[in-house]
Amino acid sequence: MKILVCISQVPDTSTKIILKDNNTAISSDGVTYIINPYDEWYALIRALELKETGVASDVHLITVGKADVEPIIRKGLALGGDEAIRIDAAANDPYETASYIAEYAKSVGYDLILCGKESIDYNNGVTGVMIAELLDADYIGFAASIQIEGNTAIVNREIEGGEETDTCSLPVVIACQKGVAEARIPNMRGIMAARTRPLKVVTPTAVAPVAAILSYEMPPAKAGIKLVDPDNMDELVELLHSEAKVI
Amino acid sequence: MNATESVKAIKGGEFLIRETAAESIFIPEEWNEEQLMIAETCTNFLAQHITPNLNRIDEQEEGLMAHLMEEAGNLGLLGISVPEEYGGFGKDFKTSMLVTEKLGAGHSFSVAFSAHTGIGTLPILYYGNDAQKQKYIPKLASGEWKGAYCLTEPGAGSDANSGKARARLSEDGKHYLINGQKMWITNAGFADVFTVFAKIDNDENLSAFIVEKDLEGLSLNTEEHKMGIKGSSTRQVFFNDCKVPVENLLSERQNGFKIAVNILNLGRIKLGGGTIGASKDVISLAIKYANEREQFGRPISKYGAIRYKLAQQAIRTYASEAAIYRASQNMEEATDMLVESGMDEIKAKLKGTEQYAIEAAIIKVHASETLDYVVDEGVQIYGGMGFSAEAPMDRAYRDSRINRIFEGTNEINRMLTVDMMLKRAMKGELDLMGPAQKVAGELMSIPDFGGAEEDGLFSKEKKYIAGFKKAILMVAGAAVQKLMTQLGKEQEVLMNLADMLIELYVSESLQLRVEKLVGIKGEDACKEQLDIMRVYVYEAAERILKSGKEALNSFAEGDELRMMLMGLRRFTKTEDFNTTQARRNVAAKLIAENKYCF
C-alpha cells in the first residue's frame, strides 16, 4: 500500500505577523517556518506507523512550493518518509495546491492520501477535500483515529457532541486531527538519512487560482477586561447591552 | 602586526600577537540545514522530556534521570561525536558543541548529559584499545550504559595528581586492586562504567582504569546535598580492594594525568557551550516576564533600568558565543590538518584540542561568568518572583553557580591561561618576545596622534583591539622581567593578566563575528549586532585598563611605572559614544521579539 502525505510549510506559531506592500502580503523577513503541525504530528506520523506495522509499503511526502520549502520537506524525510516530492510552484490558493497534488497523485496511484485537517496559517481546511474531488476519491475529514484493514479504512471522527465511525474502501483522502498519532522528534539516524533519501522536483501543469487575496487586516487590539462584582448583575446586563452589544 | 600576518588559521594563543581575518572564523549564523535540524531535535527533547519534569528531576525521583538519558540515547544525542564504527554518528566538533549548547538549558539533565558524553565516554573512546572501545563505547553511545569519571578526592581537587587512591597488582597478576575514596562524582548513582584515576604502587603519576559498577569492592555513598543542580547524581565512590581486571587499565601506566588534562581541555570549551545555551534560555524567560509584568500601568520592559539589564545580558552572551565557536572551528581545523598529515584521527583530535587549550580555559571562565551575570540579573528582573521557588529564576540562579567551580575552578583556569601562554613562549612556540620588545620601543617613542585614520565600519574597534594586544604585551612583558620566577607566586598579577587576555580574546572574536555577519547580511540587517560589538569593546577597554593598572601598580614604581601607566592609557583609549542609546537599541529588538534573538 502506498501512502502520500501532504506537507505544508507554515510560519512558526510565535511569529509576529508584519504586513507589507500596502497590506496585500505578509512579510517573510525573520519568519521561522515549520511543518504544519496537523500534517506532521498526525498525518505523517500515522503514515509512518502504518509502514512500521507492515500495513504500508511506501510513504511519500508531497509539498507545493519553491526551493525555499525544501528544509521542511527534508525534515519530513528525517522523521521517516521514503521519498519526497516538491511541486515546483508558488500556489496562490487551496485549489491550485490541490490541483498540483492531485495531478501528481494520479500519475503514481496512491491507496491512501493523508493531510492535516487544516494548515495553521490560512486555516482554510479545504485542500484535502479538493484533492479527493479532483481524484474522484472518497474523503473523510476531522479524523481522530485511522485503522486500515485490507482494502478498508476505518476512521473515527469527531462530530458535534460525540464521535462516529466511518468505513470506506481505498483509495481515500483523510484529513487528520489530534488523536490520530503522537508527535515524534526526528532522531539522529533519521536526520542523517534525510540527506540520502530522494527529493523529486516536479514541474506541474499550470492551473489558474480561483481565489485571490485582496488585502490583509490585523485584528483590533484586545480591549481591557472589565471586572464586574458578582453581586452587581444589573451592571453586567447593562454593559452586555450597551458596550458589548450582545444582548 | 600587519595585514600580511593575517592568516587563515592562527595557532593557539597567537591571537595575542597576530590578526585574524573575519572570513576565516566560523560564526553561529552559518549553521547548515542538518545542524539546525539537530538543534531543533535537542530543543524539542528539552521541551517534551526535561522542562515539564524539572521538579521531579530535582527531587531525584528513582530511575528518572537514567530513563531520560536513555530517551536522549534513543534520539542519538549521546553518540553525536562517537565514530559510526562504535555506534555513534561521527559528527564534527562544532555540531557536538551545538548539541551541548542546546541541551545546556536542561539544568541538572544537562550536567548528567555533559558528564556522560564528555568525561564519562571520551577517556575510553580516546585512550582505550580496540577491545575496550568495542566493549564499552556502543553501549555508552546508545545510553544503555551510563558513564562517570572519578578523579577528585577529598584532599585532591585542583591538585588532581596528589590523589591518595592506589592500585596494586594482585598476587596472581590478573587484577589491579584499587583502594581509595573519590568525591563529587557526577552520575555516580546510576553509572554503569567509571573511569577511575589512581596511582599504581608508588608511581609519581596517575593511571586510569575502566571500572564497572558491579565489580567487587566498589560502593557508593549517599547523594550529596547541593546548592544547585540538585537533580544531578553526585556521590562519593569508595574502592576497597576493588578487583579490576588487568585488561581494564586504560592507556599506559602513569598516563592518567595526561588523560585527565586532555579530557578537561575539551570539557572546558563544552562547558562554555552549555552555559551559553542556559544564558539564552534565561534571557528569553526574563524578556517574556518583563513584557508581561506591569507596574505603574506599563510593562516593566518599558523602563530603562530593565532594558539596560536585558541588553547587557544579551551583549555578554553574544560575545561569549562568538569566542566559543571561533575556538571550536580552530580546534576542528587543527584536527583536520593533523589527520591530513597522516596522524591517527583520535590522536589528532587530542592534539588539535590541546593546541587551543588557552582559548578553552578563557572560554570556560568567560561563559560561566556570563551565565552567572545573566541569572543574577534574571532574578532581579523577576523582582519578588525571582526570589520565589515557584518561578524558574530560583533554579537557574542556583544551578549556574557550579559552572565557576567544576572543570577546573575559574581561578585555576585563569592561572592556566597565563601559564600556558608563557610556557609556549619559553618553548619558542609562540613569539611573545619580539612583539613585546616592539611595544616597549613604542613606549619610548612619540605617540602617534592620528594622521591618516583608516575609515571603515570596523576600523575603530580593530584599532582598539590592536591596542589591547599592546597593553597586554607591555604589562605581561614587564611582569616577566620584574618578577621573573616569582611571577607564578604573584597570583593576583596572574589573575589581572588572565582577565586582560580574556577580554582581548572575546572582544576580538565578537568584532570578527559581526564583521563576517555584516559581510553576509549587510549593515542594515546587523544594526543591533553592531551596537552589541561597540558596547562590549568599549567596556572591555575599561576592564583591561583597570586590570593592567592593578598589575603594574603591584610590581613597578617611579618613572618606569608612570611611563607604563601612560602607555596603558594610550593603548586602551577609546572614543566615547552613547552606550545608553546602543543598549536601548539592543533591548528594543529583544523586547519586540519577546525572546533572545541574536
From TrEMBL, chain A:
CDD domains: ETF_beta. Signal peptide: none annotated. GO terms for molecular function: electron transfer activity. The keyword Electron transport applies. This is Electron transfer flavoprotein subunit beta. The lineage of its organism: Bacteria, Pseudomonadati, Bacteroidota, Sphingobacteriia, Sphingobacteriales. It comes from the Bacteria. Residues 23-211 form the Electron transfer flavoprotein alpha/beta-subunit N-terminal domain. Keywords: Electron transport, Transport. The keyword 4Fe-4S does not apply.
From TrEMBL, chain B:
Residues 32-144 form the Acyl-CoA dehydrogenase/oxidase N-terminal domain. SUPFAM superfamilies: Acyl-CoA dehydrogenase C-terminal domain-like (SSF47203), Acyl-CoA dehydrogenase NM domain-like (SSF56645). InterPro entries: Acyl-CoA-dh-like_C, Acyl-CoA_DH_CS, Acyl-CoA_Oxase/DH_mid-dom, Acyl-CoA_Oxase/DH_mid-dom_sf, AcylCo_DH-like_C, AcylCo_DH/oxidase_C, AcylCoA_DH/ox_N, AcylCoA_DH/ox_N_sf. GO terms for molecular function: acyl-CoA dehydrogenase activity; flavin adenine dinucleotide binding. Its cofactor is FAD. It catalyses: a 2,3-saturated acyl-CoA + A = a 2,3-dehydroacyl-CoA + AH2. PROSITE patterns: ACYL_COA_DH_1, ACYL_COA_DH_2. Keywords: FAD, Flavoprotein, Oxidoreductase. Residues 148-242 form the Acyl-CoA oxidase/dehydrogenase middle domain. Residues 468-570 form the Acyl-CoA dehydrogenase-like C-terminal domain. It comes from the Bacteria. Residues 255-417 form the Acyl-CoA dehydrogenase/oxidase C-terminal domain. It holds the Pfam family Acyl-CoA_dh_N. Belongs to the acyl-CoA dehydrogenase family. This is Alkylation response protein AidB-like acyl-CoA dehydrogenase. It comes from Mucilaginibacter frigoritolerans.
